Amino acid sequence: MNKSAKTEIAKTKIAVRRLPHGEGLPLPAHASEGAAGLDLCAALAPGGKLVLEPGARDLVPTGLTIALPPGFEAQVRPRSGLALEFGVGVLNAPGTIDCDYRGEVKVLLVNFGAHPFEISRGMRIAQLVVARYERVELVESAEALAETARGEGGFGSTGTDAVGGGAE
Ligand SMILES: O=c1ccn([C@H]2C[C@H](O)[C@@H](COP(=O)(O)OP(=O)(O)OP(=O)(O)O)O2)c(=O)[nH]1
Ligand SMILES: [Mg+2]
Question: Which CATH superfamily groups domain 15-132?
């Protein structure tokens, strides 16, 4: 009997184009069968390096444009390994790629670490998670909103101990 968990998921096809500086780099790919994100590579000039000083941020090109189907967005998310090892993350995480955007997908990296972080061409710097979203229409209500147990409590109102504040 095969005990390994099944993680194969049907794939939505999304059109992508490489920009000239993206030629020769692998297309973003899922690093494992069940990986949610497609790893994004830095499309720096061949031999080019980018050094992020501690506290600095920079917009890193991926060399890619994509056409997301209506109703889909893509989120530019940090890689946990870079965050843990170097303190490097995505400043606006999760970055939002709109389905009507046809510009280059870029990654706003930030160095929260204590040392300069060197980025080279092809380095996998972030990941792209494609997701469906809802379009909504806000309808202004003349009446009070439906009441809930939480009410206006927020921003820590349930405390921090293991047993939550509200549940009875
Ligand atoms: O990490 C990111 C975030 C955004 N974008 C691109 C795609 C997105 O569709 C567009 C606009 O992003 P956003 O709405 O977050 O930025 P804004 O400051 O609101 O700009 P705009 O006024 O152009 O919407 O910029 C990226 O390439 N990477
Ligand atoms: Mg916007």
Answer: Deoxyuridine triphosphatase (dUTPase) (2.70.40.10)
